[in-house]
């Protein structure tokens, strides 16, 4: 039974059912990006409290501001005394640096008031609630991770690991590309077919003998 190009009703030219679609040819940069995203899906613990040091100011305004006293206490026990001191130190230094050297590309801005106090951020910079703040934090950290911005992470363990490939998606895309590249064998135009039939009938009398 001939194989037809999807949605055309037209048979594929020289199709051999024993020939399979070629292996997925995914560009390296796309494959690495997909592997890193897959890693984060399988390891949600990456977004733990230790990640605060990646961007103390961002964590402070997106996550820490919504924590209850009990949640901060639990996080402190998880970090340990030295971890809490380290986070506080990083946060203080980051605030001073943001005031001295404002980053126009930063998600948040820090400004001093007339008396030297740090002014509150603009209203549109404030997350609506805890869920939105956490979602924005994870989104920023995912972007950072995917572009290779985590200097403490061994990316080679992910980038060179085929276990993080999404095989189903790659195979489906390879199949789509394979069939898109096939040249359909177009059937004879209907008008030409009628014309050819008429030519075959020429010369016949059309009178049936009894």
UniProtKB/TrEMBL annotation:
Organism: Capronia coronata CBS 617.96
Coiled-coil annotated residue ranges, if any: none
Region feature Disordered, mapped onto this chain: 1-22, 149-210
Name of the featured protein: CCD97-like C-terminal domain-containing protein
Biased composition (Acidic residues): 181-191
Record field: compositional bias (Basic and acidic residues): 164-180
Pfam families on file: CCD97-like_C
InterPro entries: CCD97-like_C, Ccdc97-like
Domain CCD97-like C-terminal as annotated: residue spans: 34-98, 126-181
């Amino acid at each position: 039974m001939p194989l037809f190009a999807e949605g055309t009703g037209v048979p594929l030219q020289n199709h051999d059912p024993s020939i399979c679609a070629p292996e997925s040819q995914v560009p390296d940069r796309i494959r690495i990006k997909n592997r890193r995203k897959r890693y984060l899906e399988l390891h949600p613990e990456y977004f733990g409290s230790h990640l605060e040091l990646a961007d103390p100011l961002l964590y402070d305004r997106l996550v820490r501001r919504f924590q209850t006293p009990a949640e901060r206490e639990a996080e402190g026990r998880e970090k340990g005394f030295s971890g809490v001191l380290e986070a506080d130190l990083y946060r203080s230094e980051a605030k001073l640096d943001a005031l001295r050297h404002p980053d126009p590309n930063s998600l948040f801005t820090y400004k001093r008031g007339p008396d030297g106090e740090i002014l509150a951020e603009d209203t549109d910079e404030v997350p609506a609630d805890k869920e939105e703040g956490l979602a924005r934090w994870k989104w920023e950290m995912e972007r950072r991770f995917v572009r290779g911005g985590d200097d403490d992470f061994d990316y080679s363990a992910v980038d060179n690991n085929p276990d993080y490939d999404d095989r189903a998606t790659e195979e489906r895309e390879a199949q789509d590309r394979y069939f898109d590249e096939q040249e359909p064998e177009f059937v004879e135009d209907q008008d030409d077919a009628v014309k050819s039939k008429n030519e075959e009938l020429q010369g016949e009398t059309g009178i049936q003998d009894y």
